[in-house]
Amino acid sequence: MDLQPSHHLPKTQHFPSLSFSPVIFKNRPTSLAIFSLSLLLSCIIFFTITRPFQPSSLLDIGLFSQILTKHQNSAPKVCDYSYGSWVRDESYPLHKYTEKCPFLDPGFRCQQSGRPDTGYQKWRWQPRACNLPRFNATDFLDRARDGRIVFAGDSIVRNQWESLLCMLAQGVSNQSTIYEEHGSPITKHKGYLSMHFEEYNLTVEYYRVPFLVIIDRPPKDSPKEVRGAIRVDRLHWYSAKWVGADILLFSPGHWWNEDKTLKMGNYFQEGGAVNTTIDVKEAFGKSLITLMSWVLQSLKPEQSYIFFRSYSPVHYRNGTWDEGGHCHTFVSPEMDLTKLESEPLNNLQISEMIKKMEDAQIKAQFINITYLTELRKDGHPSIHREPGTPETAPQDCSHWCLPGVPDTWNELLYAHLLSKQYRTRLKTK
């Protein structure tokens, strides 16, 4: 499941010819010493130009080893936080919020909706080769002071957005100074929301754009089966509001499936006409190209940090969401790794796009939460949905209880920002 970067064959190297003129010394010891030194330097020069420079492979003593040691000690360690295991930890999290956090939708408050167990809140993610930095709300807020954080996507990224609001609120002395800039209610609200942290002059924004591109009425003379047009070559108009953000987190993959597109009569439009021959995979790839083009044209590489969060798995068992699928019996993470699904194709497409953005010197990062989330079949609201939900309504095995799994997604976001030494006051004006 691990996504590996594309490997390219090394280019053929052409080495310059080396020629040495004989030098004659009358003093034999001097001649021998100089000859030996010349031979050593020639070997070093030849070794250096015929392979990439690696100080430790030349001379592991003296100056080279001192430079290497100093460099190794000062360079930040790179860790893959995506793979590891869930560890039961009764002390986790150290400074958690509760369901009383005012920024949570009722549908994510599973305890208040009747869920009897709290064990799903006591699992800490442990990466294989390193430790995940503990989330520090005060430090995060200070680093993001006078900045903007944007979340764009569907209701799953809203799940993560609300989690981050509650996590950051733990670092604010007076939570009444956190408010929605336009006076909009945070629950039952579509469109976009912008929460302002007054003490830090920080906004944390959410934009509901499930496809990221525009969903429009079909053009005239479209086939009868076309009820809507997903315009893969036009980014949603909300994108104008994202310009200037310091952190942007996109969640682009969940709605790109046949159930949400073709089976609902939503076909793909490119230019002035709908193309009914394009499948979902190809259309998603075209939408990513549109997003990448917007990033290159609209954002400043020295200012904006761009993150793409991977697919968040669902856990419907014994049926789909609308055919009796359920998850209410699960009270602990999955331990049988043979039951895990393979890497979603959307993740692979996003990863390829990020590689192209990196080649263009754009600070883009793929936060792969799919594996760690696939293990957490116990973290969904299931039957414990918001008050007033009919008993016959489908279970919710796609969203997440809060506090819960999305808190870990935000811990990964924080860890990546630390590794990049993110701080708004350092950005170029």
From TrEMBL:
Protein's name in the database: Protein trichome birefringence-like 9
Coiled coil segments of this chain: none
Organism (species): Coffea arabica
InterPro entries referenced in this protein's UniProt entry, alphabetically: TBL, TBL_C, TBL_N
Protein's gene: LOC140008349
Domain Trichome birefringence-like C-terminal: start-end pairs: 132-415
Domain Trichome birefringence-like N-terminal: 78-131
Subcellular location: Membrane
Keywords linked to the UniProt accession: Membrane, Signal-anchor, Transmembrane, Transmembrane helix
The family this protein is said to belong to: Belongs to the PC-esterase family. TBL subfamily.
Keyword Membrane: yes
Transmembrane regions listed in the UniProt entry: 30-49
UniProt topology in membrane: Single-pass membrane protein
Main localization (coarse): membrane
Matches recorded under PANTHER family: PROTEIN TRICHOME BIREFRINGENCE-LIKE 9, PROTEIN TRICHOME BIREFRINGENCE-LIKE 9-RELATED
